């Protein structure tokens, strides 16, 4: 697909109002949103929307651009996939964004620009457990912090691994190989609705845990994966994080970006909070125990959790006067 002519270099949109990366315009995204990484998961959840039973989610590539009387799916040139329809009569969107905080930033800012009224956003992803949760459990973030590679630390050519004591001392000073942020809270009401819905839906034997999420800027170095090809200085990162932050439950790559932008968003003209957020993740690996989830369990858990998250995202009310207008939207009733 070719490059569209854009206006406004500060916040690019095309002549029809489509944003540059997510590729959506007003009326294509609802106030209630589930965000995921994988477009296959977005289309799976889309198949649970009203009228979505005609979608064969096992052949998701067929539906990357799709229109029915109930559901609209579009995939932008930058490969953001947006699914919009209704769930139990309530307008809902599911947006697949890929991986990492930069992708979350594109999504949150561009969706905020095209939707009138409050946004309620729940992230549904995968993570590595640091604590109580086993591979195959669910973790809900009560709050989140960022763990990022300190690029300045690596500008010298030294290649001697730090001792555990030296690593911890440098980290406390803010001079270590990695930096950590202060925490951002998830929305309490949306989080409570999410926890309740997960308890009601997840398969027997799956536990739902709550705690601190740590969002890393890399799948590798800042999640303490050992790679002999690079000077990462992360041999003691697990120990430092678990001792310094005892409520930490998981490592993943997106939730802090979502919670941080919600906290940073200015109130709406009405005075209402602009963005309310919650986040949960399936545990694919226990990083300390070095175990991996059974793929068969993921399929069943993903389906059950999807229904839970759909129930949660419509559970917290939005004043009808503040919702994005239905007229002209893709979810407008015929």
Automatic annotation (TrEMBL):
GO molecular function annotation: uridine phosphorylase activity
CC annotations in GO: cytosol
> Quick one: a GO biological-process term for this protein?
uridine catabolic process
Protein's recorded name: Nucleoside phosphorylase domain-containing protein
Supply the Gene3D superfamilies for this chain.
Answer: Nucleoside phosphorylase domain
**What organism does this protein naturally occur in?**
Allomyces macrogynus (strain ATCC 38327)
Which Pfam families did the record assign?
PNP_UDP_1
What top-level branch of life does the organism fall under?
Eukaryota
Residues forming the Nucleoside phosphorylase domain are 70-314
Q: Which InterPro entries match?
A: Nucleoside_phosphorylase_d, Nucleoside_phosphorylase_sf
């Amino acid at each position: 697909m070719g490059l569209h002519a854009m206006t406004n270099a500060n916040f690019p949109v095309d002549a029809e109002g489509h944003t540059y990366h997510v590729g959506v315009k007003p009326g294509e995204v609802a106030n209630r949103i589930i965000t995921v990484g994988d477009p296959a998961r977005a289309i799976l959840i889309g198949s649970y929307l009203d009228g979505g039973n005609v979608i064969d989610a096992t052949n998701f590539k067929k539906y990357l651009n799709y229109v029915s009387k109930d559901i609209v799916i579009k995939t932008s040139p930058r490969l953001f996939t947006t699914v919009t329809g209704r769930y139990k009569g309530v307008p809902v969107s599911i947006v697949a964004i890929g991986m990492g905080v930069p992708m979350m930033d594109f999504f949150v800012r561009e969706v905020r620009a095209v939707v009138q009224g409050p946004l309620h956003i729940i992230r549904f992803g995968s993570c590595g457990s640091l604590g109580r949760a086993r591979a195959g459990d669910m973790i809900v973030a009560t709050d989140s912090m960022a763990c990022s590679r300190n690029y300045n630390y690596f500008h010298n050519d030294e290649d001697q691994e730090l001792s555990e004591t030296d690593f911890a001392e440098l980290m406390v000073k803010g001079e270590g190989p990695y930096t950590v942020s202060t925490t951002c809270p998830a929305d309490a009401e949306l989080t409570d609705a999410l926890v309740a819905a997960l308890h009601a839906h997840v398969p027997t034997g799956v536990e739902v845990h709550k705690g601190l999420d740590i969002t890393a800027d890399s799948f590798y170095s800042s999640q303490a994966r050992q790679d002999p090809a690079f000077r990462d200085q992360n041999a003691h990162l697990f120990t430092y994080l678990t001792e310094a932050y005892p409520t930490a439950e998981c490592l993943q790559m997106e939730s802090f970006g979502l919670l941080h932008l919600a906290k940073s968003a200015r109130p709406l003209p009405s005075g209402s909070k602009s963005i309310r957020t919650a986040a949960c993740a399936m545990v694919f690996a226990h990083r300390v125990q070095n175990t991996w989830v059974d793929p068969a369990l993921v399929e069943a858990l993903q389906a059950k959790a999807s229904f839970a998250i759909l129930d949660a995202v419509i559970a917290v009310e939005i004043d009808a006067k503040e919702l994005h207008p239905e007229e002209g939207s893709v979810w407008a009733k015929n």
